[in-house]
Design brief:
The protein is mainly beta. It has helices at about 5-15, 160-170, 180-185, and strands at about 15-20, 35-55, 70-80, 90-95, 105-110, 115-120, 125-130, 135-140, 150, 155, 175-180, 195, 200-205, 215-225, 225-229. The chain starts with 6 loop residues before the first helix and ends with a strand.
């Protein structure tokens, strides 16, 4: 299974996360349309398991989600790192939607790359705008930590979540959103496991068959790492 042959299948069966080399996005790292050349670095020090829902086809798609069957399999874990050698055989371009505390970071996704990554979210909100006729779209990673109250044992993030949502609405990136309740809700995970309150959003651009616009569309997926217990 290859990330480039079938990105959706790859991210369904493997875990991906941005590495430290991409925390600070310097101007010299930027390429065409703001893309950055990256590579995959496999994590070999630990064993990882992913929990997946079985394909819901036919009448099963009409059943309530609580009847979904879960299964587990061993998975590989990959860090996405900056690759300064653009001629490297393992290098590929990607859009990176940055993260900054108490800021809504915006990235335009065009045709210069097929993949988009953003930093792991532990309470942030990710938003998607309205696609242009050619398939291009704005996305945003919103953080409003300054509006959180309480402490680590009794945190109140209600206002922070509201401000994050409003920031994306105000910048027309609210057509679809991944909010904390989507990835921190205990009902969103299989029985007998708990989530570690994190999510990684990945964008995949699917080219269209013809040359006329739209020449492709962006779809978005998010991974929730799970911890047994």
């Amino acid at each position: 299974m290859n990330l480039f042959d079938d990105p959706v299948a790859f991210i369904r069966h493997n875990l991906l996360r941005l590495g430290d080399s991409l925390v600070t996005l310097r101007p010299e790292m930027m390429g065409i349309e703001g893309t950055i050349v990256v590579r995959l670095r496999e994590e070999n020090e630990n064993d990882f398991i992913v929990s997946l829902t079985r394909n819901r086809k036919g009448l099963m798609r009409l059943m309530p989600r609580c009847y979904t069957a879960w299964w587990q399999k061993a998975a590989n874990f990959y860090w996405i790192e900056y690759e300064p050698n653009v001629a490297s055989q393992v290098a590929f371009p990607a859009y990176i939607c940055a993260y900054q505390e108490n800021t809504t970071c915006v990235q335009y996704l065009g045709e210069a790359a097929r993949l988009m990554f953003t930093f792991v979210m532990t309470g942030c909100t990710f938003g998607v705008g309205i696609p242009k006729p050619d398939g291009g779209v704005l996305v945003g990673h919103a953080n409003a930590t300054e509006f959180a109250s309480g402490n680590d044992l009794d945190a109140d993030n209600t206002q922070a979540r509201f401000e994050q949502r409003q920031g994306l609405v105000a910048t027309n990136m609210s057509r679809a959103m991944v909010e904390p309740q989507n990835y921190q809700d205990q009902r969103a995970i299989p029985p007998g496991e708990r989530d570690d309150r994190r999510a990684s959003v990945i964008g995949v651009r699917t080219p269209s068959a013809g040359a006329a616009p739209p020449r492709g569309k962006w779809d978005f997926y998010y991974q929730i790492p799970l911890v047994s217990g």
